[in-house]
Amino acid sequence: MSINRREFIRIAGISTILGLGGSVIADKLGAASEVLPNEKALKGKHWGMAIDVGKLKTDADYRKCIDACHDIHNVPDIGNPKEEVKWIWTESYEHTFPGLESKFMSESVEHKPFMVLCNHCENPACARVCPTKATYKRNDGLVMQDMHRCIGCRFCMAACPFGARSFNWRDPRPFIKKEKENKEYPTRMKGVVEKCTFCFERLAKGLKPACVEASGGAIVFGDLEDPDSEIREVLRTRYTLRRKAELGTGPSIYYVIGGGEHA
Amino acid sequence: MKIYDGGKILLGLIVFVGLAAFPFLYNAGKAAAKPDPKTDTPVIQEMAEKKCVEPKEFMRAGHMQMLNNWRDSVVRDGMRVYVSNTGSRHDMSLQNTCMNCHSNKKKFCDECHNYMAVKPYCWDCHIAPKEKES
Lengths: 263, 134
Description:
The complex is a heterodimer of chains A (about 260) and B (about 130). Chain A has nine helices and eleven strands.
């Protein structure tokens, strides 16, 4: 049997169309089971936080937020500062805002601890250097850490200008108090890097991050892209600072500085 | 032909072959106990219809691929609800959904995994349900 070129092209064309159509039908048949997002999940385009430093007064205020986070996420308390694992902690003014110190400063600011955590940058240096895409930016602006993929190379720790990442030098399990252990959240294993995840597991259930809930209004959480959100209202009316904004990573954590009882 | 130190070499060979073959000879004819996974947990006992998210046969053969897909869709894509072939909805979570029913990890997971000598690293991070030491 011989076949001319015209005939060959016709057969090839018809089988291509049939093939494409067929695969669509096959997909429909195979999609009996499907995955959906939780309907209650909070939706946003760019999650951010505004921390009102004036409202966090005593050590207990800070402790409440830190403990809420660390207890929920099974963050170990290792004790040795060289192996410390932390998601949210306090830092002095000159460590929080280096380059913004002055010779003579308001004492209330100079000696105040500042609550610091992962800044969930718009242009995260950690995600850029990660060789396995274990850390990556989600569509809602959250910088996520996938513990399943982390190989513990610590490039992200070198890249992060905020020191927001901790490495598990040893198995963290023995350092998590049994009675505090949250059975609904995993721990980590030796050799992975961890950090604040903006409580992605709580956002998916429609809850705000644990530190926001524990702060009693000192931390405002919301969508920075939504001009009508509470956080945008705060940013419109109050003077705020971001940590090391000059580096261009675009931090999403804002610090509300100074008074403002009437603001 | 003369083998220098022939006696020692032959003796050494016999000892070596004996040692290397010992595990096979020792276990020859003895079948390892067949794994017998149990699903008799309190939660499952109370269920009116004892059904997993998908049919038993599918789960038995494909739970590992399914768990991988669940992990990726939850952690990477933020999809947390699984709609099964029969239309039932489930929260995709090993620690909170699977192990809520299958709270007997030792008799449910480890039974077969040990038999097949597979060591899944789920439990390095995920917290296994509390069980009585047996």
